[in-house]
Design goal:
heterodimer, A: mainly alpha, 6 helices, B: mainly alpha, elongated, disordered N terminus
Amino acid sequence: MSDVEQLHAAPAAPPRRVVQIVPVRGLPLVAAVVVFVIVAIAGNFSWALTFCHVVGGGLWTAIDLFVGLVVGPILGRLSIPARMEFTARFMPKMVLLMPTLVLMTLAAGFQLALQEGNLAPSSPNHAWLVASYCVVGVMAVIALGVLEPANLAVLVEMRKARPDGQIIARLMKRFIYTAGITGLMQVATLIIMTRVATQ
Amino acid sequence: MSAGQAAEAPPAANGRRFPPVAELATVSLALVVIGGILLASYAPRRPPLGAPAALAAVSTILLLADVVLLGRLPEFNWARFFTFFRWALLAYVLSAGMIGFAFIHDHVRGAPLAVVTALLVLFAVDVPLIIAFTVARYSSPPHPAS
């Protein structure tokens, strides 16, 4: 049975809930994180910059790896109704969480590298940091150009009175593949960052 | 955006062929990212601006081509497009503003700041455009009248 047939043949589907696209209750937390990062940069506070970079980067890497290599493949094997149910709860959180973590990690990391002299051409870490920019750049284009728009389009489709199973299946496939690619690229980030920390 | 609005949306444009608006915007975004990497790789020194400025120029041309393609789209769900474009623009202007703040804080001035600002403006427009187009294309009529 195809994905779309599964959607239409779903036995006694549970009552539909209104799918929230952006969890409004999370916005104050995002604002607090952004203010914290701005204060850390403005004051050049080493501890705060390290905190933002390590906590943000740790969560970003772990979530990307887990979603790309564990959740994604499981999601790909679920029936469409099960995927929709999971997605309706999971993706709105990702819409807020991931951009916040990425902003926190990159802004604080750049400032920290500048402060510690790692950006200087004479630093042994300079080449590794440029390599990390390239890895992050590829991940950013994939995440912002493909993954995030697909997430939002799935959520909007699910809010419709009659969601189109074909559209949802196609967009979810895109999400699963791109999450897998960014997950694999995070392995490169781990290698680069552990090199930088130990040189 | 209410559930009612979503329920009133026209049937999805599944199968309808659209011009490569999202693809062009993604290439435009990729050029911005490459320009940003080139600039950041020279920090804290003054970077050569030729390549980043050229990338910003090509990225702008691609973005303008996107606007022209969008303007020619028949029967597109503009209401949905602009709802998402506005909110995403707000989010990415804040993001770009924060990155710009970091550069100003690090004493980037003059021509390098102008190139950084141009790249950030492109970034702040490209991403909302990709998001809004991707969302609206699946809420547009399946077959335009023309």
